[in-house]
Amino acid sequence: MTTAAWNTLLSAGDPDPVAIRNPSGTAPFLLIGDHAGNAIPQSLGDLGVSAAERARHIGWDIGIAALGAELSRHLDAVWIAQNYSRLVIDCNRAPDACAVPNAVVPVSDETPIPANHGLDDAARAARVDEIHAPYQDAIAAEIARRTAAGQPTVLVALHSFTPVMAGTKRPWHVGILHDGANDGFARAVLSLLDADPLLTVGDNEPYKMDRIDHTIPRHAFAAGLPYVEFEVRQDLLGDAAGIDRWCGIVARVLTAAARGDATCGMRHH
């Protein structure tokens, strides 16, 4: 990567904060991955967190990098992914230091993150300026480009969730997150998934789209863009067969919702 002279966090050996796959994709779907990567800037070492801890769900959305890449190919869709671990900064949280929950967490699922304790304003600003802002700017730029070219946009956020959280099992295979703002497309996707008797589907489960979410509200709400946020259970994305199966499921419901077919039957691999 080419690193600006003023960078204080990322160096020449670090990956770019944003990966854009298939930038000339013709599909209406703009795929985004707020937590697709788990890289750590060299300047932060290991954050004081073991490799095993960083590899679990607190570090990233397991399986989403592979799912997003496969969907991008299958649908001919643009895929914008954030390369850094959400333990460095969570790009689906408001960057404001006063925001609750905070984008830079001192503890995640009972695991302390030592490098996130006692950050001064400059250190926090570097994470916002060099990771959070470039990712959000890339999404805004792609939406602007598509609008100028007359290409429709359906914003599709891809996330995954751990099967067990705080000792509680989560029964859903997939959840659809949405809010009252222009959520007709999300509700159509939810209806299509609900029609599949083999799936246990969560409506705003295991999370709700509320003041905590940042990316979809930021880019879709005011602009009136159709959107949907997927949460796929991580154990279902653990191998190539799982990625392939969920690529098929997600691609089918997106395509059916886009053509207005809320009664589309579902078939599995």
TrEMBL record:
<dbReference type="Pfam" id="PF05013">
    <property type="entry name" value="FGase"/>
</dbReference>
<keyword id="KW-0378">Hydrolase</keyword>
<dbReference type="InterPro" id="IPR011227">
    <property type="entry name" value="UCP029730"/>
</dbReference>
<dbReference type="GO" id="GO:0016787">
    <property type="term" value="F:hydrolase activity"/>
</dbReference>
<dbReference type="InterPro" id="IPR007709">
    <property type="entry name" value="N-FG_amidohydro"/>
</dbReference>
<protein>
    <submittedName>
        <fullName>Putative N-formylglutamate amidohydrolase</fullName>
    </submittedName>
</protein>
